[in-house]
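A note from the maintainers: we've had questions about how concatenated examples are separated. There is no special marker in the raw files; a new sequence line simply starts the next protein. For clarity in this README we add a label.
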Amino acid sequence: MGQAPSQRGAALGVMVSSRRSILIVAVMSIATVAIGLRVGAGETVRAAILIGSSLPHGGGRAVWQLRAQDDDGRTRTAATTPFVLIARSRGVERTINSATNVDGVAEIALDVPDLSWGDRIELDVRDDRSAVLASGVAAWPKVAPAAVMFEHTILRPSRFEGALHMRVAVLGGALAPNQAGRVWVTTTSNGEAPRNVRMDVTPDLGIEVDKPFAPSTDASHAGVIEIVARGHLGGIALHAHDELGREGDWYGMLPIAAGAMHVVAPLDAEPGIVHTTITSASARTLAYVEVNDDVGRAFATMLTLTGEPPSANASFELRTPGRSFIVVSGEPDGAANVAGATRALPIWIGANAPTEADLAEVSAQAFPRFVALDGFDAKHAALAARRKRGRFIALGALALGSLLETLLLLLAAREGRQRLEALQAAIAEGGDAPQPAVRRGALDVLAVLMLSLLGFVLLFALIEWTSR
């Protein structure tokens, strides 16, 4: 006996309805998982880091460096962007409108009366679209770092003999290639002081004597030789003799800072405006110039060098008496470790200036820095929270979809079994199969609830995605 058309249509309707429900749930689950993974996916974020330094003598001024960077989760690259920095401290608000350079760097100076080490400074840095680059309270180290300096940094000779002893020092710590540098020689002896010292200078290959030894007019038993380094390695041999017939020999390597810039500045000046000229010895056309006294950072700027050779002038106001250093580098963090192509030239402000020979024997090794505010901390925390939400959405949708699909298959199997039983009974009785009574149980209620929950999860994922 064949199946009546109404019976076949009802069975087909159940089959199509079950298949449609299973397909809809599968599509919803896959879409929710995909959106969840997209919500939790990493992305490039832009933030700023404020590099702090010690306050100069007298406080009241924080000269810090801002670095804007893009972070894709693997590497960080410099970001050139305009920004607005608002700083609040001791009841004073300062606003700085500026932009980072090609290195993603900008120098900022916060002048706040009576600002002291450890004072609370609230900072808010935003780009030209008002997106936050960094925001928070500056973090000070518990102990103020002091600039690391070496006194009497004379060169170590590889040969040193004779009755006349020589101390040799390079002004500024090292020679800049292809630029005349001043090498000071101070002569001493165990007996009577040297008298009318003369000096024979024999340079190595790649080292040229631009001006021979000239006795100093203000430093006893000292003289200066102007040397030009044409290469990156070389030394000089010195032979000293005086009127008393005493002699001495010295040979040693000269420190040559490959790629260093040539700095022309007064070695002593009255309090006020100090002018300096920076000349590049390489193709580098960007110079970072700062002034540090014995306590902290007093001034900083970035110079674009032009011309042939590339050069530029800088002027800054120095009022604190005593010793300072003009630090010049092609890198934004050169002063943190005075080495390589970074030079630190000593300068004396005010009265009682030491001789140039004494200044040549003073060398700065480093001017410590610290991270005052790291905008990536907040950005990475937000990314981690969003990544967690994305994983929760994806895993939740995957688990809920799997359970709901299984439940729909069970419901479809139950309805099919009921219709099969009704069909078998009709065949046995020789009549038309009646429509089986739909019996709603706990599985039906659970399926409806889970389908609604999956819909809410999908809606939450869409809102989270569009709100990024």
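[label: protein 2]
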Amino acid sequence: MVYLSRHPDGHVSTFHMLDGLPDEVVTARYANGNVSKAKHTLISGFLKGCTFYTRQEAAAIVDADRRE
């Protein structure tokens, strides 16, 4: 399952953030409702088209492109 990073108002974020995650992957929240912990199985990454890349995979692609 892929969850896009979203602002609390539902707009897609341009950076990684926890506050827009659905309740099924959130394990704790601060008193103000912001996410303080997410499931340890959650993997941060990026989508390009329909392909998901972990942060490490994306970094490796950027490094390879720089070498060319």
